[in-house]
Structure formats: C-alpha cells, structure tokens
Amino acid sequence: MEESKELEKSVERRGKLTPVLALATLISAFGSSFQYGYNVAVINSPAPFMQEFYNETYTDRYDEPMGDNLLTLLWSVSVSMYPLGGFFGSLMVAPLVNKLGRKGTLLFNNIFSIVPAIMMGVSEIAKSYEIIIVARFIVGICAGLSSNVVPMYLGELAPKNLRGAIGIVPQLFITIGILAAQVMGIRNILGNNTGWTIMLGLTGIPAVIELVFLPFFPESPRYMLIQKGDEKNSRKALQRLRGWDDVDAEVEEMHLEDQSERAEGRLSVVSLLSQRSLRWQLISIIIMNMGQQLSGVNAIYYYADSIYGSAGVNEKDVQYVTVGTGAVNVFMTIAAVFIVESSGRRLLLLLGFGICCGACVLLTVALHFQENVSWMPYISIACVIIYVIGHAIGPSPIPNVVTTEMFRQSARPAAFMVGGSVHWISNFAVGLIFPFMERGLGAYSFIIFSVICLVTLIYIWMVLPETKNKTFLEVSQMFAKRNKTEIKVGDGDLPLKDSKESLDNSERSKAF
Fold first, then answer.
1. SS3 call for 415
2. N or C end of the chain: which has fewer CB within 10 A?
C-alpha cells in the first residue's frame, strides 16, 4: 500500500507549477515577449507628434517644409522597419539558439532592445528622425528573436501536461505589452508632444530586468542533454524545475528522443525543407503562421479607430475605447492559458479561426450599411470586439505552442526560423498592402480576410492532430503515417510504442 501511495504521489508531483518554473516563465516573457507587443503599438498614439518632429527637423535642415508624400514615405518606413527587423531576427534564431542556448540567446537579445531604446530616447535631442528608423529596425530584430525563442525555451522547460498553458504565456505578455503601450499613449500620460520620446525609450526597462534576473534560472534541460551531451547539468536543471529529485523518467524520454534523432540524422536548416519525415509538420507551421497574420488582425486594429469614430465615439474618447479593446484581448488570452490543456490546441484553433471568419463577414456587412442605418455602427464595434476575442483564444497564441510540440530537438530551431520568417513576412505584407486594399475595396477588404480564415480552418480540420499531453516522440509518431515514414528509436530500431512501454515498466518497477 505504501509503495502504491508513493507511486500516486510521484504522478501528482510531475507537472507541478513550481516557483522556479513560474518565475523563469514570467521573467523571460516579460523581458522579451512584452517588448514585442509594446513596440507593435507604441508609435500609434504619438504618431501626429512624431510626424510633426519629422517635419520640423527637415525644415531646420533645408529651410523648407517636408512635402506630404515624403512625410508619408518616411512614416511608412518608420512603421515597416519593425516587421522587417523581425524577419531578419527570425533568420538568426537557429544559429543563435544552437550556439548560445535558449536562455543564452534571450540574454544576448537584450542588446537589440537596450541600444535602440537609448537611440529612440535621445532622437529628439539629436534632431534626427533617421535614428528612430534605424532603432525601429534593431528593436524589430529583438522582436523577431524573442517571438520564436521564448516559446521554444518555455516549451522545453515545461512538463508535457503544462506545455500548452505555459506556451501561451508569451502571447499573453505580447497582449499586455500592446495594452501597456495603449495606456501610455493616452494624451494625458505620455502620448503627447513632450512625452513620446520617453514612451519609446521605456522598451529598454524590461530588457534590463531580464538581463539581471534570468541568469539565475536554468538553461533548457533538453538543450543541455541532447545538443550538449551534458546529462549532469540537465538533470540538475530538471530537479530545480520539477521540485523533486526523481527525474529519471524524463531523462530517459530525452535519451529516447536523442537516439531517434541520431538514427535519422540531425537536421540543418536547409535539410529541414526537404526532410520527408517532417513534410506535413513544416506545411502546417507555414499555413498556421500565414493564417495568423493574413487573417487581418493588424488590419482590424488599424481600422478600429475609424470604426469607433463613425459609431459616434468622440475623437478624444477613441483612445479609451481602443484601450478597452486591448484589455479584452488580454482577458481572453488569460482565459486561453487556463483552458488550453482541457480543450486542446486543435479545438481552440478551429474555434478561433471560425469566430474570426464570421466576424469579418459580419463586419463587411455592417461597414457597408454603416452610413445608412443608425444603429449599424454599434454592430461594427461588436464585430471588432468579437474578432479580437476569436483571435486571442486561438490564432494568436496556439501556433507557437504547436510548433514546439511538432518538432523534436534538432529540428525545432530551424522550424521556428521558418515559422518566424513566414510570420514576419506576412506581417510586413499586411502592413504594406492593406492601405491600398482599403482604398480600393473599402469594407470588402475583410471578405479576403474571412476567406483566409476559412481556408486555414479547413486545413487544421483535415490535417492537424491534437498534440496536448503528448511527448515530442509521440507527436512525431502521429505525423509519421501522413508523411509515410517510420520513427526509429535507438540502435535496435525499437518501435516507439515498445520503447514507451519499456519506460513505463521501468517507472513502475522503481515505484514498487
């Protein structure tokens, strides 16, 4: 009986949210993911004052005002440098995480936050808008790295039964960063002609906090064991993260993954694209990241102010309504953290894209009749909020979680590099193309977004399996049939199922 109770206690202890795991999650997400969200929204509110600074600087230099076309061009470049930097940052993911580790890359990445924060903070004193443009590119590199490395790091720290919830925390901090920028951008706070440089420079504070505290937390145990061959420190890290000493089962599972990868050969970034055993996983992350960004989420935020204005919201109050929308986004992402392990990843993706698809269709109708029907603008506002809710529970947070779970250790950095590149290219494309779409198609622009949501939903329904509470090897086995390949484990090519049964029997024998 005592042995049986000991086994039950052991099972209960596995998967606990220990203080070390919780703090590592919060510090890495605040220090990195928060900045991604903050810098997405930080220049929206002070835009008129920043453009006025651009014009004044140009006038002081050349004794004539800047033309409207040049001002529009410079402002567009200032905005688009951020996703462009994000794209280049995503290309750096694989080489950096393989050489420096997951935690090491996050610490190194703070350079790309602190330096541009100082640059943007002194731009007005230096009378240079070029500094802002360059700084936006550099801080974009920071976002491109953090948006991929933080989910990878946390996915490898977390036990399998908490991987989904912890994997959503980076997206939660992205939404908190957006909300913080919206709040700071209120005219009475920093969104004015004297506070905008301070507002831009604040992005360096989370980086400093991460630089100070993250070194006290462990590197990814999977990285240390599988890629560095350091079982001793990997075991110590697992013991700290799990809060108990018996981590033999998890170490053995990592050894099985390592043996499987040695049997199939370790992957480079280039070979990932032609690897048959990862074909459908790769297609899936490309579709999900394209669907996430091309579904119109950034366009919705772009269009929100004009929708609120046409609904009769006072121009001075639009900023508060926008903050309210950001708060809804945060609340629903928090909800996703708590329901992802019970509902699963696949259901949240299907539900999220379905809600976004329906909201885009209704928003198109509402915008079409908005000027003719007095109460229709309120339907438009409701559609924006419903869309934000749908995106927050599925399309925004889940793709990175699933990317972590679909790829094993040696392929994961390359997979995040590919997914991140698609993410940022799609983000850049929407920012560049949507103003022309809006001018040419008006309200009907959102029909295109609804079609993209529908196509992504159909793909997920037909192809993507549920990955919750599965080991990385089990997920690989789920895709093996679709890829028409076999997963090899160990020198004797022991089938995955038999290996797991052997592992389970080993755990039971130790407990009894």
1. helix
2. N
What residue has token string 């590197």?
219
**What is the distance between the alpha carbons of residues 352 and 335, in angstroms, rounded to a whole number?**
13
Q: List alpha helices for 394-495, DSSP H.
A: 398-406, 412-441, 445-463, 472-483
- Reference 174, options 22, 355, 392, 17; nearest CA is 392
Q: Per residue in 178-190, pLDDT tens? A: 899 888 888 888 8
Tell me, letter by letter, the H, E, C secondary structure of 122-144: CHHHHCCHHHHHHHHHHHHHHHH
Query: Is pLDDT of 310 > 70?
Result: no
pLDDT number for residue 265: 52
Q: What is the pLDDT of residues 208-245, one digit of tens each?
A: 999 999 999 999 888 888 888 888 888 898 888 888 87
CA–CA separation, 306 and 302 (whole Å): 8
The string of DSSP codes covering 317-369 is: THHHHHHHHHHHHHHHHHHHHHHHHHH-HHHHHHHHHHHHHHHHHHHHHHHHH
Long-range contacts of 269-273 (CB under 8 A, 24+ apart): 269/94, 269/413, 269/414, 269/417, 272/411, 272/414, 272/415, 272/418, 273/418
